[in-house]
Amino acid sequence: MQPPPAPYAYFPDPGGDPALGLLATGLAEVSHDPAALDRPGWWAAVGEFDGRWTCARFTDLRPAALPRGAWTGPAADSWRSSLDQRQYQSGVQAIRRHIATGAVYQVNLCRVLSAPLDAPGPATQAGEPNSPAGLARRLVRGNPAPYAGVIDLPGHGVRVVSASPELFLRRDGDLVASSPIKGTGRSEADLLPKDTAENVMIVDLVRNDLARVARTGTVAVTDLCAVEKHPGLVHLVSTVTARLRPGTTWPQLLDATFPPGSVSGAPKLSALRVIRELEPARRGPYCGAFGWVHNTSGAAGRARAQLAVGIRTFWIDTEDPGHGSGPGGEPRPGAQMRTWLRFGTGAGITWGSDPLGEWRETELKAARLIALASRPSGGG
Hints:
Blueprint: E1 8-12, E2 20-31, E3 41-47, E4 53-65, E5 80-81, H1 85-100, E6 106-116, H2 132-142, E7 147-153, E8 158-164, E9 167-172, E10 175-179, E11 181-185, H3 193-211, E12 220-230, E13 233-243, H4 250-257, E14 265-266, H5 268-278, E15 289-295, E16 304-309, E17 313-318, E18 339-349, H6 355-373
Antiparallel strand pairs: 1-2, 1-7, 2-4, 3-4, 3-15, 5-6, 6-14, 6-18, 7-8, 8-17, 9-10, 9-16, 10-13, 11-13, 12-13, 15-16, 17-18
Helix pairs in contact: 1-6
């Protein structure tokens, strides 16, 4: 039996050769306490939507190509959704009822797609027919993204490949920036007044989040509703910046801003209650955070970091997908444990949302990436 592959993290250079980037190896420690990010060192970090963090400190950093790896992928027709079209559209209507009562203004409604990965395929030297590096190679070629990367910690339950287009937090000392995405279409002509209104609403939420830890008067909107083009679609993107108060720690910054407002809703606490009510599967790292933190000393103010919102993100785990189970997405009694590839997709729901249109937006966001990750149906 082959030993498990060595842990690593990899982030492509978005401004250079997409096949080259920063490779981190030499795993020194793993912590589930985000306070670890205030300690010296280079950390890869994954924050799950429900607040569980995995922070991995690596000691060997170097420019390198993406590690080699095979990718067989699941059959294209093996994907299942935690919410089917009828259930998703009913969820949109339920959110509109919550909006009518004044409980919320906007809620991001998501579904998790799952497909089995235990089909036979060619093994890599590490004995894996489906390695995160193999999937990442497909995404780099077919769907380059500014905040792409791989964090592979096979002994710690974290195997994540992201093609995220969205910045959650960039930090350089006390300066932080966040660039929420709200508004998606196949082209700029598809963007509606509803998309602009939704973007402005979430910008206001991000401003309020950052203000909880920012120096008075430093929160600013430096870009509002700019159109960004990505493979197969366009987004409306805004940017909010702030200067942190002296001594602000990573737990304080994350307590103020996490989970990202663009993938939860407004007001955030009320939106999270609605999400728990309507979504049957855990989001895991989808809609959480994904990236790196580098501290050159023990002072939190010396930190540099880039954390993406965990959208357009795949993850591998070994459990039942939770279809037909309770609200927490727990495994069904007696369910066979298998290896699954998962991918989340969602849309922001406002009073002006059309249930069918929102369902189609979730399909648009998923279609290209699911096709890249899958093999033809029937194993052909």
